[in-house]
């Protein structure tokens, strides 16, 4: 398992937290949003999930992920 | 049909808009959120829905409605 913390812009409420964590969960990874810190920390299996896939899943929910 | 505009605090994103408009729709009324204006304008049938019920439905979603 690896862990990465991504900066995410645009999360403003509990619904946003659910949307982002849900998108990460769908990939089989485990995300925890820090709303005040504008970030999400994701634990993932690098054999099955790429960081790019995680970023894309979050962006698909309508949020900007720092490159 | 009557129309009322309620001031609502705490709505911050598209998910909040969906939550509030969805709660109003469940009552059989028609709500339109103005996110920037921090308000929701609701068209409702006063024979079947009370303003109190509308306020309660929005508050149940976790938002403050001005009294």
UniProtKB/TrEMBL annotation, chains A, B:
PROSITE patterns: HMA_2 (PS50846)
SUPFAM superfamilies (UniProt xref): HMA, heavy metal-associated domain
Domain HMA: 2-66
Signal peptide: none
One GO BP annotation of this record: copper ion transport
InterPro entries hit by this protein: Cu-bd, HMA_Cu_ion-bd, HMA_dom, HMA_dom_sf
Entry-linked Pfam families: HMA
Name the UniProt record assigns to this protein: Copper chaperone
Lineage: Bacteria, Bacillati, Bacillota, Bacilli, Bacillales
